[in-house]
Design brief:
CATH class: Alpha Beta
Largest sheet: 4 strands, mixed
CATH architecture: 3-Layer(aba) Sandwich
CATH superfamily: Glutaredoxin
Number of helices: 4
Structural class: alpha+beta
Helix content: 25-40%
Radius of gyration: 16 Å
Strand content: 15-25%
Amino acid sequence: MSVTIYHNPACGTSRNVLGLIRNAGIEPRIVEYLKTPPDRTTLVRLIADSGLTVREILRRKGTPYEELDLDDPKWTEDELIEAILSHPVLMNRPIVVTPLGTRLCRPSETVLDILPAPQRGAFVKEDGEAVVDASGRRIG
């Protein structure tokens, strides 16, 4: 069962998603995309498979988004992809790829929609929010 997470260990949402994947009994392939950024082909495929646009994948907070003026509509999708390739921190995270789909998992419980195995028990996010009960069922 192949699951890949494009992960930033410094991000709480990314850590929560990794925890939910592991709570399903899956040890994913972890790509720390800031250390090993995806190449152009992989990035374009991730965006297309997620059903999002390049603009929807862009991360603003804690990135050079404003400095590069990426909010300007003059930028083409190809130019925005080049910006992400030059500054991987611009790629929002975590992106998870499973046999059931590719998603930008924000909020973290979005990953539950594409995991190929059920949760094995309770899961509480780092902020204390319970998202899975003791029976492995999604809360809320």
